[in-house]
Structures are given as structure tokens and as C-alpha cells.
Amino acid sequence: MISIQSLSKSFGGVKAVNGCSFDIEQGTITGLIGPNGAGKTTLFNMIAGAFAPTSGKIIYQGQDVTGLRADQLFHKGIVRTFQIPHEFERMTALENLMMVPPGQNGENLFRTWFSWAGVRNQEREVRKKGEEVLEFLQLTHIRDELAGNLSGGQKKLLELGRTMMTEAKVVLLDEPGAGVNRTLLAKLAEMIKQLRDERGYTFALIEHDMDLIAHLCDPVVCMAQGAVLCQGDFESVRSNEEVLEAYLGSSAHQETEGKA
Ligand SMILES: Nc1ncnc2c1ncn2[C@@H]1O[C@H](COP(=O)(O)OP(=O)(O)OP(=O)(O)O)[C@@H](O)[C@H]1O
């Protein structure tokens, strides 16, 4: 689905990503792990079009998409979840979903004047789709709740729901488990699997919670110092000595920095 080829990104003298290569196969839930500062977020930002690589290529469904902007990639089906924006917290869960589809007629004043019926129809369809998404996520009971009042886990589910309002093919999740209680985490994991199985989504996710990685991801790609250290199923990555060293090295480094 996505082939990352010798990708690098430097910020001044810092090589955040340094010759990173791996494939995200269609229909997988690929987990990206690695110690702090390994380059995971920077890599995600490049795949999602937040910034262009310094060198290397990103091939998506056989097409070179290196350097395309986030909105261009969004229209091709590469969707990244983001925290619900501050101003959206004052909207209900359903309204948050209804805000997602791009280019709604209702946003265009001229079309609004000339085609009220069209706008009404489209709004009705978007509302219906939003309600279906809430039902799928078993969130119908919080339909009219303000997003700002939702728990961390409910917000994560709603963020996942926002991707379902689009024509997503690849969904990039940045630490979906962060701040989510165990019960909702299990539900979130089930929803991700269900979206893969029933809607054919491909997922790539950055995660520090190893339980979630073990439960959800195959393959797991471990990054260190901007490159891929190893990849494979969770067990093989977990028992890899270089991986252990990378994690231990990084925590020892942090401890030393903390003491300094
Ligand atoms: N905008 C930036 N400007 C300068 N340096 C940056 C920038 N973004 C990231 N870096 C540096 O690039 C390296 C990789 O950072 P990145 O955030 O991609 O790692 P990460 O694996 O996501 O870490 P974490 O797990 O802590 O989020 C780090 O040394 C970081 O300080």
C-alpha cells in the first residue's frame, strides 16, 4: 500500500529520520515503536504530508506521492487522526462528525442561494452518515454531548469516527492509547480491527503501550535513531537484542540527562 524508501528528514543539523525504509502492506495494522526521539512522529508527518522529506521517496499504491501536501494526500485516502480542535469542543459529538466531509455545499453561499434543496439533501445525508458512525462506535448515547465533556477514550473513538466520514484507505493513528482507560482501550482496539476487516482500512500507528501493540499490530516496526532497527511480529521484535539495547540506551541517556 505504502512503500517508504530511504526516507530522511533533517532539521538543521539534526537527522530526525535517516534512511528509513519499510512497507505498509494493505490490510495490515502496522505498529511503529521505538525509544523517544527515534523519529516516529517525523516519519508520520512526512507520510501524512505535514512536511516534505529531505530525501527519499514515498510510494502510495504504485504512485510517487513524495512531497504532496496533507490535503492532497487526504483526497487520495491517506488520513491522519488529530486531536479534536479546541473550538470543536463546544460542538456535539454528532456535529463534530458532520464537520468532516470536505466541500459541503452548505459552506458555499452561492450554491446555498441557488440550490437550497441540494444543500438540505446533502446535510441530511451527512447527518445520517454521522449517526451511522456513532452507532458503529456504540456512541449513540453521547450524540448530543459536547465534545469537550467526553472522556479521553470517548474522544479517541470520536477521532476514529471522523476518519470514517471520509473515503479513507490508510489511517495513521498517533498514540491512540494515550490517556484512554483499559475498558475503552479494548473497545478502541476492537473498532480498529473491525474497520480493517469490514471496511478494508489499512492502519499504521505509533504507540508506546506495548499491550496494545501486542494485541493489535502485525507487523511491528521498531525505529531507532531515524532508521528501522528491526521488523516482524511482536514476539520477534520484543526478543530482539538490538531493540532491548535501543530502549535501555535511550532510558539510560534520559536518566543521565535528568541527573545533569
Ligand atoms: N521541528 C523540529 N525541529 C528540530 N528538531 C526536531 C523537530 N522535530 C523533531 N525533531 C528532532 O528529531 C528527532 C526525532 O523526533 P521525533 O519526534 O520524530 O521522535 P519520536 O520517535 O516521535 O519521539 P517520541 O516517541 O518522544 O514522540 C528528535 O531528536 C527531535 O528532537
From TrEMBL:
<keyword id="KW-0067">ATP-binding</keyword>
<dbReference type="InterPro" id="IPR017871">
    <property type="entry name" value="ABC_transporter-like_CS"/>
</dbReference>
<dbReference type="GO" id="GO:0005524">
    <property type="term" value="F:ATP binding"/>
</dbReference>
<dbReference type="GO" id="GO:0016887">
    <property type="term" value="F:ATP hydrolysis activity"/>
</dbReference>
<dbReference type="Pfam" id="PF00005">
    <property type="entry name" value="ABC_tran"/>
</dbReference>
<dbReference type="InterPro" id="IPR051120">
    <property type="entry name" value="ABC_AA/LPS_Transport"/>
</dbReference>
<protein>
    <submittedName>
        <fullName>Amino acid/amide ABC transporter ATP-binding protein 1 (HAAT family)</fullName>
    </submittedName>
</protein>
<dbReference type="InterPro" id="IPR003439">
    <property type="entry name" value="ABC_transporter-like_ATP-bd"/>
</dbReference>
<keyword id="KW-0547">Nucleotide-binding</keyword>
<dbReference type="GO" id="GO:0005886">
    <property type="term" value="C:plasma membrane"/>
</dbReference>
<dbReference type="Pfam" id="PF12399">
    <property type="entry name" value="BCA_ABC_TP_C"/>
</dbReference>
<keyword id="KW-0813">Transport</keyword>
<dbReference type="InterPro" id="IPR032823">
    <property type="entry name" value="BCA_ABC_TP_C"/>
</dbReference>
<dbReference type="InterPro" id="IPR003593">
    <property type="entry name" value="AAA+_ATPase"/>
</dbReference>
<feature type="domain" description="ABC transporter">
    <location>
        <begin position="2"/>
        <end position="250"/>
    </location>
</feature>
<dbReference type="InterPro" id="IPR027417">
    <property type="entry name" value="P-loop_NTPase"/>
</dbReference>
